[in-house]
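User: Here's a structure from my thesis project, written as structure tokens. My advisor, Dr. K., wants to see whether a designed sequence matches the one we expressed. Can you design one independently, without my sequence as a hint?
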């Protein structure tokens, strides 16, 4: 198969490329990524010279550029990871989220319509369902839970999902959508909770927990997410949405304390800072459908995944120290300065 992977220089996209090239060595991957602050070409160094891998620096909103790649490569499958992905940034500046996440998606789907495709897969998020109350642990997101977004980020992702389903119904485009819970693992940009806390703890810097830290996320090791997408591509039903989650709900504060424990750092580093605006309380996925239909189950327990992740950040300091010491420092000072850190 010829697979276009967009956003492959980011966290999940790069892990997906590694997963597919290992599992299906006969597949060819064309990675489209415009290398925003979150994209890192060095991440793809291990595969850059493989004959069945091609990297193209391209914005998915660039219609002519995208059409040209379709003409050159005749892809069988498109997997769209490319997105602005950080909720806090979407609260500061929503517009780029609408541009990349909605318009970019529409350009890709137009290309699929124009040139034909066997499958277009949209990588979405459980955040499109909004949040659940902390006092109702019996409630979970199902595929038919109404979309009820909170942040500009989740709203842009939900809009893209609706557009994808509309292209399926209106034009018969063979699409699938997956909505996954919070991922963690190697190559995650240090602005997100887990890598940010690891990097700060290693530097003995304050660990900024929003509000009381009681918000709950359902954490999934990134490789399990990649495996689920691969299964959907091969055996999923066109026109369907699949929820992906690990039944691994944890409070933010407990995660931060666990990281302190593993790194042997004092919990006194924890600082409660101003809460995120519109902060979702709890995300929790019911993954029954993908389990029953495709046989998917998460394989990495959180206690193992978090160790692997911390070890990866210890072993790959250069990767994230380059980021933390660059332009990101300005973002960090501005964002966390406003929060009172
Ligand atoms: P990321 O921010 O680490 O990576 C995004 C990548 O997309 C970067 O390489 C960036 O350069 C690229 N990109 C951004 N705008 C682009 C554009 N206009 N054209 C081409 N490339 C562009 O994100 P991630 O955490 O790897 O998330 C990947 C996808 O998975 C996103 O669609 C996100 O919504 C979804 N998702 C993420 C999580 C999570 O926990 N990280 C959970 C569920 C769903
Ligand atoms: P994040 O990794 O940004 O993912 P998302 O907002 O998509 O779930 O944040 C995970 C949780 O951690 C969320 O409840 C916000 C919280 N958080 C902090 O408490 N401090 C931080 O510095 C960050 C980045 C997040």
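Assistant: Designed independently from the structure alone:
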């Amino acid at each position: 198969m010829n697979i276009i992977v967009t956003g492959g220089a980011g966290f999940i996209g790069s892990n997906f490329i590694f997963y597919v090239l290992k599992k299906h060595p006969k597949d060819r991957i064309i990675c489209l990524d415009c290398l925003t602050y979150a994209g890192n070409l060095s991440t793809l160094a291990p595969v850059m010279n493989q004959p069945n891998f091609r990297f193209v620096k391209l914005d998915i909103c660039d219609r002519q550029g995208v059409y040209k790649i379709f003409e050159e490569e005749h892809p069988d499958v498109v997997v769209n990871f490319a997105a602005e992905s950080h909720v806090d940034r979407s609260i500061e500046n929503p517009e780029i989220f609408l541009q990349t996440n909605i318009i970019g998606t529409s350009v890709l789907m137009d290309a699929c319509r124009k040139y034909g495709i066997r499958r277009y897969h949209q990588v979405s998020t459980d955040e499109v369902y909004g949040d659940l109350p902390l006092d109702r642990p019996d409630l979970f997101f199902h595929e038919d839970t109404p979309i009820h977004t909170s942040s500009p980020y989740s709203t842009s992702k939900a809009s893209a999902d609706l557009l994808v389903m509309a292209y399926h119904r209106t034009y018969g485009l063979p699409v699938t959508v997956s909505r996954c819970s919070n991922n963690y693992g190697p190559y995650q940009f240090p602005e997100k909770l887990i890598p940010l806390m690891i990097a700060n703890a290693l530097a003995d810097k304050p660990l900024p927990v929003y509000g009381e830290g009681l918000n709950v996320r359902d954490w999934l090791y990134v490789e399990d997410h990649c495996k689920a997408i691969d299964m959907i591509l091969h055996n999923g039903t066109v026109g369907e949405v699949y929820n992906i989650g690990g039944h691994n709900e944890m409070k933010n504060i407990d995660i931060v304390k666990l990281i302190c424990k593993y790194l042997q750092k004092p919990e006194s580093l924890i600082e409660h800072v101003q809460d995120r605006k519109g902060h979702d309380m709890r995300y929790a996925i019911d993954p029954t459908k993908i389990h029953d239909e495709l046989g998917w189950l998460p394989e990495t327990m959180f206690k193992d995944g978090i160790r692997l992740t911390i070890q990866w950040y210890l072993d790959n300091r250069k990767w994230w120290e380059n980021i933390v010491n660059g332009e990101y420092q300005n973002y960090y000072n501005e964002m966390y300065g406003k929060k009172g850190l």
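When you compare it with your expressed construct, this may help: The pocket of thymidine-5'-diphosphate (ligand 2) is lined by residues 87, 182, 192-193, 196, 208-210, 213, 215, 217, 252, 276 (CB under 6 Å).
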